[in-house]
Amino acid sequence: MNTHNIPVQVSNPPNDQVRVFKVMTESELAATNGVRHNGDRRGSQPVVDRRGSLPVSDRRGSLPVIQFPFATDVQRSKPARIPGRIVHTRGAGAFGVFEATDDISDVSDGAGPVDTLRESRGFAIKMYTDEGIWDLVGSSLPVFPIKDPALFPPFSQSLNRNPQTRLKDANIFWNFLTSNPQTIHHTILVNSDRDAPESFRFMDCYGAHTFKMINHRNEFVWVKFHLRYDQDIKTFDPEAANVPTVEQFNHAAADLFNAIATKNFPSWTLYIQIMTEEQARRCPFNPFDLTKVFSQKEYPLHKVGKITLNENPIDYFSQIEQVAFTPAHMPPGIEASPDRIFQMRISFYNEQQPKRLGPNNLLLPINNPATNPIFFGIPHQPNAFMQTPATSSSLVRRSISNVASNILLNVDDFTQARDFYKNVLDSHGRSILTKNIADSLARCTDRNLVGRALFMMSTIDDTFARRIGKKLNF
């Protein structure tokens, strides 16, 4: 169905979607004498009227089992619901284009809750390339709370509701944070003013993991991917962000849809940070630790290109809900690193997608446009096939473990968090951070947990911890 040629005046695209669809449907029915041959064909017969089922001619109005069109509609309604994603279950999606604007060959030698809650927001981009599909699966923050895959189950459980009350429980959450100091960097960032974007359009995106990039000469470097939004900076007021309303539950999704529908296309500029193998050996921390960032002073950002979202989905279920992302999908030239969380995610995502979408999830049009060249919203690429990375020995898959084994694993969890607090945030930003952490800890009924949290914050700055304690009368 082509929606671009329907002359419908739209003042509020999300709210007017049903009205626009009605106008589009009436136009199509008028052109086909009332029969929608594409969408309303059951078996070999077009269905003219779907408004009712045909009862057997008795007073009880029983339905005949052989009434095929009605039975087909019922059957189709059952798989129209699929299990939700384990993390980041709510969100939105759109289609767009990537434009490579800069040549990096000379430097690389080698890409649930309410919308206002303070938490890292997931993002994922599926790029359909001539050499395969690339799924860049990341977050709105450049770090992750943990660096050891063994902590992933208890971390996920700490975000769940209390098993008895079914309410959010700050004691469970802060018990995990204070038991694992490696979470400190993420905790500081997520409670800063940087993690309250007004909507998806005003959110930076990070690949977070360290990736391996290889050039045509089989030389490789380690890189991190950054997507910086090009719109003006807009964040929620700290007070408003902490008070959920009905409108906030879908605020970000509605804002994104609205912007694209009114041709105010949001865009992000893609940058990479580059670390050579020699620099990785001399790095004072483990460069494959997901709780750490690369200093932009030592490893400056190199511009690569721009991503622009310019097309809303027509059918959310088939185009967004059925999309399957996995970090394992990387085209030649991009590979995984010794990052243990990265390696866990590659296995975990590949295992979960068949459970969520079925064994043929890679054949769904959104996941493999080669199976449907006219799938709306996706430019067909004849060679765009879903695949896992090739195992060709020509791609220098030489012992990434050799690099990892020569790196002294520094267990310092506090230096980068301390640097962010003291050298990145200004006085206003530190004040917001203090208030946000104090507000979160105020929901803890276990005073011992509050004491542990304040001790952890004192490793960042004593004054910082005392200010939090003062707000808590601790």
UniProtKB/TrEMBL annotation:
<comment type="similarity">
    <text>Belongs to the catalase family.</text>
</comment>
<dbReference type="GO" id="GO:0020037">
    <property type="term" value="F:heme binding"/>
</dbReference>
<dbReference type="GO" id="GO:0004096">
    <property type="term" value="F:catalase activity"/>
</dbReference>
<feature type="compositionally biased region" description="Basic and acidic residues">
    <location>
        <begin position="37"/>
        <end position="56"/>
    </location>
</feature>
<keyword id="KW-0479">Metal-binding</keyword>
<keyword id="KW-0560">Oxidoreductase</keyword>
<dbReference type="InterPro" id="IPR010582">
    <property type="entry name" value="Catalase_immune_responsive"/>
</dbReference>
<keyword id="KW-0376">Hydrogen peroxide</keyword>
<keyword id="KW-0408">Iron</keyword>
<dbReference type="GO" id="GO:0046872">
    <property type="term" value="F:metal ion binding"/>
</dbReference>
<keyword id="KW-0575">Peroxidase</keyword>
<dbReference type="InterPro" id="IPR020835">
    <property type="entry name" value="Catalase_sf"/>
</dbReference>
<dbReference type="InterPro" id="IPR018028">
    <property type="entry name" value="Catalase"/>
</dbReference>
<keyword id="KW-0349">Heme</keyword>
<dbReference type="InterPro" id="IPR011614">
    <property type="entry name" value="Catalase_core"/>
</dbReference>
<dbReference type="GO" id="GO:0042744">
    <property type="term" value="P:hydrogen peroxide catabolic process"/>
</dbReference>
<protein>
    <recommendedName>
        <fullName>Catalase core domain-containing protein</fullName>
    </recommendedName>
</protein>
<feature type="domain" description="Catalase core">
    <location>
        <begin position="40"/>
        <end position="404"/>
    </location>
</feature>
<dbReference type="GO" id="GO:0005739">
    <property type="term" value="C:mitochondrion"/>
</dbReference>
<dbReference type="GO" id="GO:0005777">
    <property type="term" value="C:peroxisome"/>
</dbReference>
<dbReference type="InterPro" id="IPR024711">
    <property type="entry name" value="Catalase_clade1/3"/>
</dbReference>
<feature type="region of interest" description="Disordered">
    <location>
        <begin position="34"/>
        <end position="56"/>
    </location>
</feature>
<dbReference type="Pfam" id="PF00199">
    <property type="entry name" value="Catalase"/>
</dbReference>
<feature type="binding site" description="axial binding residue">
    <location>
        <position position="349"/>
    </location>
    <ligand>
        <name>heme</name>
    </ligand>
</feature>
<dbReference type="GO" id="GO:0042542">
    <property type="term" value="P:response to hydrogen peroxide"/>
</dbReference>
<dbReference type="Pfam" id="PF06628">
    <property type="entry name" value="Catalase-rel"/>
</dbReference>
